[in-house]
Write a structure and sequence with these properties.
Blueprint lengths: L3 H8 L13 H12 L10 E6 L2 H18 L15 E7 L5 H18 L3 E5 L11 H7 L7 E9 L21
Antiparallel strand pairs: 1-2, 2-4, 3-4
């Protein structure tokens, strides 16, 4: 059965090699709007989107995160960049209660799919939580404009991939049971 939405979902890949091409502001606003319209528990919408296009701030988050990874003994390549040099990073934070992390996960996925539909690629990044292992969290929250009473959940970066769409990786078998 041909369905453009399903084809898009099956074609979306995590991209870890971005060009320097900037993402258009209109497209970025539309991607964020799709995140805001994600399902969320009891419609609390207790999330916050910090949309970062300032290269200096992106580099500072990268530096802080890698310093946190080093402090925790997490191995990485010497020239590793947690955002793969993407020109846009969105940090999601929320009031930690109930299903806040799940809510942010729904918003991040909505944004990833919306971006793909616009020809923009993405990579969901959980490693940003390590930046809190190296510096004062209040300073970090100020840098990425996380509101008081909110905590970091996840990040996603956006940009245009360098090269071909990554090939699909094999999916595990035996992970679904249908109970009729």
């Amino acid at each position: 059965m041909k369905n453009p939405v399903i084809e898009l979902l099956l074609d979306r890949r995590t991209v870890r090699d971005f060009t320097t091409q900037l993402v258009d502001d209109e497209a970025l606003k539309l991607i964020i709007e799709c995140g805001i319209h994600a399902p969320n528990s009891r419609n609390k919408q207790n999330w916050h989107f910090s949309v970062i296009t300032n290269p200096k701030v992106i580099e500072e988050i990268n530096r802080l995160t890698i310093a946190g990874m080093d402090r925790l003994g997490i191995k990485h390549e010497p020239d590793y960049h947690i955002f793969y040099h993407a020109p846009v990073v969105v940090i999601m934070s929320s009031v930690i209660e109930g299903f806040s992390e799940l809510n942010c996960g729904c918003a991040v996925e909505n944004m990833a799919i919306a971006a793909k539909s616009l020809g923009i690629d993405s990579c969901i990044v959980g490693q940003t939580r390590f930046m809190y292992h190296q510096a004062d969290p209040i300073d970090i929250n100020r840098i990425v404009k996380i509101p008081e009473g909110y905590e970091h959940d996840i990040a996603i970066c956006f940009g245009y991939r360098n090269g071909d769409n990554p090939k699909v990786k094999p999916r595990r078998e035996g992970i679904v049971d249908y109970i009729k």
